[in-house]
Amino acid sequence: MPMTSTTFTILLGGPLNVTERLQRALAGSRVIAADSGMRHAAALGIEPELWVGDFDSSDDDLLQQWPNVERQPYPPAKNETDGEIATGEAIARGATRLIFAGALAGERSDHALQHLLSAVSLAERGLDVLLTSGDEEAVPLLSGTKFLDLPQNSLFSVLGFSDLEGLDIANVRYPLKKFSLPFGSSRTVSNVAEGTVEFSLEAGRAIVLARPYDLTGA
Fold first, then answer.
1. Side-chain-facing half-sphere of 2: CA atoms under 13 Å
2. Cα 155 to Cα 141: distance, rounded to the nearest angstrom
3. Which end of the chain is more exposed for a tag (fewer CB within 10 A), N or C?
4. Which run of H or E residues covers position 155?
């Protein structure tokens, strides 16, 4: 793993299905584990350069499995989640692209929602961000243009975190042009990709949530 890479993968505690698409995304990245996110390291065949957290959700077997990984412990009573601490460490080490593996779904919906909100905030700071469970992927959508390489007939949705103005979605089954989406509207839920999807947005904040292996829209 090249230490000069500016792509960092943060291993989080949510579910993770190790798919070919996930492995391609993570190839060559540096890795930091956040507490129980370390359990994904063996399945991914990677050894993180750092393991942070209060370790309240890492059992003894997991702790003994990785004795040589540098640990940065924090007290349980802290002002940040383990994932946010890991993110800060990645940025301090030069990250320009962040992949959050195990960021979606799971038992803690509050954590999953916080990851989505944090992704938008990080994108506003100029970082390239991907959240993934292997089965689902999420990327922030801000003003400007973004391309998302999705398989033909796979499902995706655009979830607005504010009113969206001037939204274009092209190369899809249900295209939009200069569309105004009110905050809370479901108008952009469940679209179907016809290959690489092009998004353009004049104003607003959103998340594109995609299911690359879900071809039920075919």
1. 9
2. 17
3. C
4. strand 155-160
**pLDDT for position 3:** 58
The confidence band for 2, taking pLDDT boundaries of 50, 70 and 90, is very low
DSSP 54-113: --TT--HHHHHH-TTS-EEE--SS-SS-HHHHHHHHHHHTT-SEEEEET-SSSS-HHHHH
Straight-line distance from the first to the last Cα atom of the chain, in angstroms, rounded to the nearest whole number: 38
What is the number of other CB atoms lying within 10 angstroms of the CB of residue 179?
16
Does residue 192 contact residue 154 with C-beta atoms inside 8 Å? yes
The pairing of strands 206-211 and 7-11 is unpaired
pLDDT band at 67, cuts 50/70/90? Answer: confident
pTM of the full predicted structure?
0.92
